[in-house]
Amino acid sequence: MTASKLEYTQVQCTNRISATEDAIYVLGGRWTIRVMIGILGGNKRFNDLQRTVKGISAKMLSVELKKLEINQLAERKVSADQIPVIVEYLPTEYSESLKDIITVLAHWGTNHKKKITTDN
Question: Record's superkingdom (predicted)?
């Protein structure tokens, strides 16, 4: 079976590149998808996320969380009625749209790793 060749007009190609660049701008940071995976796993406190995403500094995690909030991919929930105050990060309804993308990306990564380690 041969893979079908995708053919685009110049306009379609330009539009697809532009849309992909937009997605990479939001998700393309070293830590962004890793943090997003942690959040999609359920409500997480800051330290829980830092333990989940191995190697990320507190400062970088803070930057990533703010970026995800701005892009409406994470929500910061503050429970000030408790002592101590509890701050959690939750996935938004909009962030659910990333689940399939992350699943496909993880699947591709697993297959790619197998391919390059068995072909060499």
Answer: Bacteria
User: Do the beta carbons of residue 76 and residue 42 sit within 8 Å?
Assistant: no
Residue 117 CA to residue 90 CA, distance in Å, equals: 37
Q: How many CB atoms lie within 10 A of CB 74?
A: 26
d(CA 48, CA 65): 13
The set of residues, in sequence order, having a beta carbon less than 8 Å from that of 57 and lying 6+ positions away, is none
- Residue ranges in the chain whose pLDDT is less than 70: 1-5, 119-120
C-alpha torsion 80→83→88→93, nearest 10: -50
Q: The pTM is what? A: 0.83
Q: Map tokens 């959690």 to a residue.
A: 88
